[in-house]
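Appendix B. Raw example, untouched.
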Amino acid sequence: MKWKRNLVLIFMLLAGVIVGSLIAGATAGIPFLSWLSYGNSVGLSVDNPMVLDLAVLQLAFGFQFSINVAQIICVILAICMYKGLVNKL
């Protein structure tokens, strides 16, 4: 039963991130809603990754995490919806 709740939580969080990203992309060009697309990126650049060359093997490391206001709002809404939904499971 606990794995079912965890799976629902992960699904809700991923849905919140995806919907938030879609909302941010859709409202980026609208002047009074452009604040929803304000965000920042953190991490090692994916375009120019850190490369470890061992002559036989080359490894490239890159990780980038970006978040915006719409994603934060949608994740908070997803958590609130999860709290209401978990009582019914």
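End of appendix B.
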